[in-house]
Amino acid sequence: MDNSAYYEVVGKTVEQLNNIMNVSLSDRVKDAVKKALGRSVRTKDPFFWHAGMLMVGLVSALECLDKDEDAKEISDKIKASLESHVDLWLRKTGGKVSFVDDALAGFALIKAYEITGNEKYKKAADAVSSYLKNAGRDAEGAILYNSGRSGNIFADGIGQVSMFMAACGDKAFDSNEQLRLFLKNGMDEVSGLCYHGYELRKDADVNGTSKNCYVSEKKGILCWGRAFGWLIMGASVNASLGKANEESLKYFTDMCEAALKYQRKDGGWSWQMQAVDGHIDLSATGMIAYALGYALNNDVFGEDDISGRISEALKKAKDCIYAHTESGIVTDSLSSCDDFAVHYQTYGNNPWGQGAALAALSVIH
Question: Is the pTM above the cut of 0.85?
Answer without folding.
Answer: yes
